[in-house]
Please model this.
Amino acid sequence: MDFKNKFILAPMAGFTDVSMRRICSSLGADMTVTEMVSAKAMCYHDKKTAALTRISSEEKAASVQLFGHEPDIVAEAAQMIAEGNFDGCSFENPPAAVDINMGCPMKKIVSVGDGSALMQNVPLAAEIVKKTSRALEKYGIPLTVKIRSGWDNNSVNAPYLASVLADSGAACITVHARTREQMYSPPADLSVIKAVKDAVGENFPIVGNGDVSSGTDAVSMMEKTGCDSVMVGRCALGNFWIFSEIKAAVNKESFSAPSVFQRVDAALLLIRDMIEEKGERRGVSEARGRAAHLIKGLRGAASVRDRINRAITYSEIETILSEAFLKDAPSGG
Model:
């Protein structure tokens, strides 16, 4: 797979399930990434974990992201995904890549040596990539890795780690330009992405990640860092159209922001899709907060969000949103 000039939906636990991914794909995302999948749980054949790997036919290209710190376990889980030979496998399209998470900053992840904790152990990180890339080689599925700038400001080692991982078999590396200690603030340090790109060389693809909330941001990141592609995370939660906006900015074309009606329609589509995937009770429960992201900033959104959070059926949510935002919709629109 060509990892250059791609605009990618970042993996986000509790958000980037198949429902969100396929909508973003339809609205311009060139690639999507699943929520984090435990390599160990995969190897233990956990059915709930298997469900996280679902890939639909509507997704242009979807990568399955694994987390773990044991090389043999991560490699085995990657091979299971490549073969699709596990209970609960639901691949309507084969995975475009397998990604290893070396950037998650959450305490429950790093406390057991996973996620960004691996940035503190370069030899182990390299061994994971070597074994996993070898396991995937015969299937023609590339291995990618997502990292951060480093553990803290005293150990910004992303350029060195990236060069080691590239030599160990990674096909592409995504850099979230914050340290683990910084979590999701202050602003991303784009100089780190540039240093990583310089370290791995022109021909190795690097994806920039952090603070991209508009097409202008994406173009600026690519110009300042030399990164080949851009990944969008939190901004996409309330703006599924960000990928179309980025493409318009890159191509110097005009872009029209989504209307109120488009935003509400997208929220309802997301809820319907989640209900179809998970059933109404669970789908509505999980979708309520996510739909709120899509109406954030609209007049009266706070009170509407409170009403949505008490709804237990799709019909209730549809009525609430329609009464609040669609009463002036043009006929037939």
In short: The two ends are 39 Å apart (CA to CA). The chain is about 45% helix and 10% strand.
